[in-house]
Amino acid sequence: MAVPKRKTSKSRRDKRRSHIKFASSNIIEDKKTGEYRLSHHVDLKTGFYKGRKVFEPKN
Fold this sequence. Notes:
Layout: H1 10-16, E1 27-29, E2 36-38, E3 48-49, E4 52-53
Antiparallel strand pairs: 1-2, 3-4
């Protein structure tokens, strides 16, 4: 069975795991309402997308 001759340092171990991370979400602040929402998504409070009314929200 293969056994490592030396201890793997934290630096070397972390370099190997550099691609393992959380993906950051693209949350932006809406210009009209000031609410936070995902970019390229409809604002559920107002029903607007790219300056146009897409649907009537349920209030």
